[in-house]
Amino acid sequence: MNSLISPPYLQKGDKVAIVSPSSKIDKNLLTGAYKKLESWGLNPQFGKYAGNSSGCFAGTIKQRLEDFQSAMDADDVKAILCSRGGYGAIHLIDKLDFTRFGEHPKWMIGFSDITALHNVFQAHGFASLHAPMAHHLSVEPENDPCSLQLKDILFGELPQYNCQPHKLNQTGHAHGILRGGNMSVFYGLRGTTFDIPAEGTILFIEDVSERPHAIERMMYNLKLGGVLEKLSGLIVGQFTEYNEDNSLGKSVYEALSDLVKEYSYPICFNFPVGHVTNNLPLINGTKVELIVTHKSVELKF
User: Fold this and answer.
1) What CATH number labels 160-300?
2) What gap in Å lies between CA 140 and CA 277, rounded to an integer?
3) Is 160 exposed, middle or buried (0-12, 13-18, 19+ CB in 10 A)?
4) What is the bridge-based pairing of β-strands 15-19 and 233-240?
5) Among the four 1, 6, 60, 159, which has the fewest Cβ within 10 Å?
6) φ and ψ at 282, to 5 degrees?
7) Closest CA relative to residue 150, chosen from 158, 141, 138, 161
8) Tens-digit pLDDT profile for residues 93-107
């Protein structure tokens, strides 16, 4: 079980490229993210098409690819902040060239639809940051814990998270490679070269605007496909912005719990990751330790 290559941590004055590989974004949020990174002593630079628009996307596929590839290739760029998710990263993932990136790895930051890019980076052997994006950095206050955690990680201070217990948790202690993100996005890559490997993985999942039966169906796919039985641990994050239609006769968490009861590894529910304000930054592709007891949940990097 080997963690992936972690890019160098940042120093004051380092350049951060802000790009928009998925949906278009309000330019005010781009400005807010720029100011926040600048306040951290970094040197943010917008991609040529970061504020562009083509339908619901932030530019054509060619434009979004050009921006993202340019940020990957630039020797002086030390991190890439994806401005937002939405939809569109899938258009790029089979077109990215990691040749120059491998000579100068850098942190790629984002979540939601950016999960597709996380999978690609991991498939090429690089860790990345599942973390808040431009909206969060723009609207949350200076002392916002998740923003500060992101800043700390970028500058090399790794976190240790302690969270509240949940009645559905399954206790245990495990080491593994942390992988995951938006469930429907990585589910869409199942069976491809960008699929998440199950062996030795501590998987984290979250989603937004997915109906309960759709979430359960995706989880059944992971179970029937032999993924769940091979995991070292499972972190169930936030499932938000859906109607609790009682179609399952139980809550989403209860449905997922029923599907994983047979496994002996640690499982925690209600972890603060997802489309919520308290969206803790997670290093995708690094070794972690997960400790679930009746009193707490600890995740150590």
Assistant:
1) 3.50.30.60
2) 8
3) exposed
4) unpaired
5) 1
6) -130, 140
7) 158
8) 999 999 999 999 999
1 or 228, higher pLDDT? 228
Which residue shows structure tokens 């951060």? Answer: 16
Exposure class string for 80-114: b at 16+ Cβ within 10 A, else e: bbbbbbbebbbbbbeebebeebeeebbbbbbbbbb
Six token digits for residue 138: 């723009």
Name the nearest CA neighbour of 190 among 147, 234, 220.
Answer: 220
64 vs 20: CA distance, rounded Å: 7
Which residues face 162 on adjacent strands? 298
Q: What's the per-residue H, E or C state across the chain?
A: CCCCECCCCCCCCCEEEEECCCECCCHHHHHHHHHHHHHCCCEEEECCCCCCCECCECCCHHHHHHHHHHHHHCCCEEEEEECCCCCCHHHCCCCCCCHHHHHCCCEEEECHHHHHHHHHHHHCCECEEECCCHHHHHHCCCCCHHHHHHHHHHCCCCCEEEECCCCCCECEEEEEEEEEEEHHHHHCCCCCCCCCCCCCEEEEEEEECCCHHHHHHHHHHHHHCCCHHHCCEEEEEEEECCCCCCCCCCCHHHHHHHHHCCCCCCEECCCCCCCCCCCCCEEECCEEEEEECCCCEEEEC
Q: Of 24, 142, 32, which is closest to residue 84 (Cα–Cα)?
A: 24
pTM more than 0.85: yes
Structure confidence by residue, pLDDT tens digits, 60-83: 999 999 999 999 999 999 999 999
Domain ranges of the chain: 15-154, 160-300
Q: The domain 15-154: what is its CATH number?
A: 3.40.50.10740
Which residue's structure tokens are 């600048």?
38
* Alpha-carbon gap, residue 179 to 160, rounded angstroms: 17
148 closest CA partner among 135, 159, 164 = 159
